[in-house]
Amino acid sequence: MVLGAQAPGRVGRRPVFAHDQDPQQGILIVWTGDRRSLCLPPAHAVLDCFEMELRDSDLVLRDWTVDDVPAIVTGCNDAEIAHWIPLIPHPYTEADALEFLEGEILPDQLKLAMQLDGRVVGGIGMTVNSHDYRGTIGYWVARDARGQGICTRAVRLLARHALEDLELQRVDLVTDPDNAASQRVAEKVGFQREGVLRAHLRHPDGRIRDSVMFSLLPGDLRE
Ligand SMILES: CC(C)(COP(=O)(O)OP(=O)(O)OC[C@H]1O[C@@H](n2cnc3c(N)ncnc32)[C@H](O)[C@@H]1OP(=O)(O)O)[C@@H](O)C(=O)NCCC(=O)NCCS
């Protein structure tokens, strides 16, 4: 069973998903690092939901499945992730992972696993605004997979999908001002630092902290 797959919605209504031709039938779309192919309809299956996959060589961004629960629990049971992403609880339990997977799938939301060589190494997501021109990205990478450029590749893949396939006009992300690794990822992909959002996010310990806003417009993306 695929959880977190894209149900028909504003993002899903875009031509790249092509489902308005046959809403009953799922469409398998494969984006690769430098080219994309659209299989209409998938030869192997009639899907009861919409699956997507973005691929760059050995790195795949794909929908989550219930089989990923142990990897999510292991990955997110890291105080550093909870420290930088206030919405992620700590300690992180199997129930938290199931709640994340089974939670409401908003029509404008992508929730994807980062899979490297068959192993889940992180998560990445994007929410598209209600007028369909701006996406906001968030991400985490398991501690033992950091420092290998995985997040940079994943953000680049998703940002390219957002700008080129979904034709969004802006992709943005916010980080804590002290989150040097996340800011470095943003810069490597080509995001521009816009400024500080003062008293922006409440952290679990009650502190309300500033955030730094980064944005990527068409033409900014760095390969
Ligand atoms: C942020 C995070 C996703 C980065 O994942 P990653 O796969 O290690 O990222 P990459 O390897 O693509 O790039 C990390 C970059 O940050 C740099 N970096 C890492 N720690 C750093 C630090 N403390 N100070 C400065 N730079 C740092 C790395 O050197 C690398 O840059 P380089 O390629 O120029 O050497 C990961 O650290 C993480 O999951 N952190 C906890 C959750 C989090 O902060 N999520 C983002 C919330 S906005």
Give a concise summary.
The chain is α+β, with helices and mostly antiparallel strands and 223 residues long. The chain has five helices and eleven strands; from the N terminus they run βββββαααβββαβαββ. It has helices at 69-76, 79-84, 94-102, 150-165, 180-189, and strands spanning 2-3, 28-31, 36-39, 52-56, 59-65, 109-116, 119-128, 134-141, 170-175, 192-202, 208-216.
Overall pLDDT: 83
Give the CATH level 1 class. Alpha Beta
Strand content: 25-35%
Seen as an oligomer or otherwise, the chain set is: single chain
Helix content: 10-25%
Topology:
Layout: E1 2-3, E2 28-31, E3 36-39, E4 52-56, E5 59-65, H1 69-76, H2 79-84, H3 94-102, E6 109-116, E7 119-128, E8 134-141, H4 150-165, E9 170-175, H5 180-189, E10 192-202, E11 208-216
The structure holds coenzyme A.
